[in-house]
Amino acid sequence: MHQFLALIVLFCGIHATARERALSPKARELTQALAALRTSPDNVVAQERYLKTFPHDYTEFLNLFDLYHERYDGSDFILVLPLAGKEHPNELGKLLVGLAKDAHYESDAPSYLQHITTAYAGQHPKTIAELVEQLPPQKQTQLITFLADVENHYSYPEYQAIIDGLKRIGEDKLATRFEEARTKRQRQSHH
After folding, report:
1. Where are the domains of the chain?
2. Which conformational region is residue 170 in: left (phi greater than 0), alpha (psi within -120 to 50 degrees), or beta?
3. Residue 19: predicted pLDDT
């Protein structure tokens, strides 16, 4: 019986190793960076490595995390971003805005990206305002629309936190754009 169990464990280990080898270099590198971050979450070097390794382009993001791709769903990889950005909030903001400016709401990975970006924006309104204002107008609108695209804003206090934070720092014009996007989305969901 022990030999049989040992064979099963060995087979599973070989199978997992083969699956890991089948990953693209980018997926393998990101998986290794995630393991290092989980092992040493307070290690600044591990945090930096993870932020550098994470996809910085929305197409690349989807190529890893979209349906039928290597790291489909991506929740383990995306939801750890705030930890990786703990000591690097500006780099995290650049990464999130860089992805969200091209994103469209879908379930799974894009929705995780939406929630992480919205939470970040509510906590760092000054950085978000600076990064959004650097974008061309069309990309600004796309980012704001992406963050506003939820079914029920009443159960989405993180979005209101963005508006409140922007108003608190005197970014009333940008706050109004977020309010208008929310109103537009609410009208769409009632029809």
Report:
1. 21-190
2. left
3. 45
